Amino acid sequence: MKPTRSFNESLWAFHFNSGSCNGCEIEIVAAITPRYDPERFGIKLVGSPKHADLLIITGPVVKKMKDRLLRVYAQIPDPKVVMCVGTCGISGGVFYDSYNLDGPVDDVVPVDIYVPGCPPRPEAILHGVVKALAKLERIEGVKP
Amino acid sequence: MGIFSSLLSGSGAWNPLVWLLAFVVAVIIVYLIWSRGEKSYKKGTEQTTPFISGNKEPSKDAVHVRGGNLYWGYTEALKGYYERIVPLHSGDMNDYVLWYLGTTALILVIVVVLS
Q1: pTM of the model
Q2: What is the pLDDT along chain B (115 residues), one digit of tens a residue?
């Protein structure tokens, strides 16, 4: 089914915690509160990767979560965009080179957008979401 | 009475044409919903497996709900009873005949004693 124009503007995101300390989760939740209210633009978190356009990954990908991350990534329909939120997912952060990591995230799945910070502020996360939306529109050929 | 005439009863009317029309309308609605589904998913990949929080899908027999699961609470509550009764059902006809003879003998003794 070819989505309608209004459907293209709405970005549904699935959040995956690959071993985060919950700091980034708190900021993601802060980003969807009425203070910022991204849902007025159709941007919201969904409960299944099958409904998502965007995969938001937090955490440095511990060994137990690698298979699950790969499975969730595979379950998101194309076209999809991956956003890595937080320093841990980008470089391993304070867990860099740990015996218990299979990450950082871009060692496991391809990442399109990096949002640094420990944790990043909600404004930074929303900025990343806007970048994701722009990239998805380019992939879909909606906008150049 | 024609083949398409209405059948009237105390509880209502039934007409094969109305039924057929309702069936056709239902099929059209189902087709419209189905045709609006996402067609670009990749068959034979993870996209056709259920989402179980990222966990691998267990084999069908591992998650099958058996008939016995429906009355699990009943057997659990009467566990003390079933622990004694189930071993007696050995499947051996000799055991059952012995039980039959023993029970018959007991009843006969009781009847004789009471009479």
Answers
A1: 0.72
A2: 577 788 888 888 888 899 999 999 999 999 999 998 877 788 888 888 899 999 998 998 888 888 888 888 999 999 999 999 999 999 999 999 999 999 999 999 999 988 8
Structure tokens of B76? 């659990």
CB atoms B53 and A68 under 8 Å: yes
Strands (E), A9-102: 12-17, 44-45, 54-58, 81-85
Domain with B16 in it: 2-35
Q: In this structure, is residue B44 part of a structural domain?
A: no
Considering only residues 28 to 87 of chain B, which have any Cβ-Cβ distance to chain A shorter than 8 Å? Answer: 36-42, 45-47, 49, 51, 53-56
Three-state SS for B100? helix
Q: For chain B, list the strands marked E by DSSP.
A: 7-9, 12-14
CB A4 within 8 A of CB A36: no
For domain A6-140, give its CATH number from 3.90.1310.10, 3.30.530.20, 3.30.360.10, 3.40.50.12280: 3.40.50.12280
Q: How far is A115 from chain B (nearest CA, A)?
A: 23
Task: Measure in Å the smallest separation between the Cα of B49 and chain A Cα atoms.
Answer: 8
- Going by DSSP bridges, is the β-strand pair B12-14/A12-17 parallel, antiparallel, or unpaired? unpaired
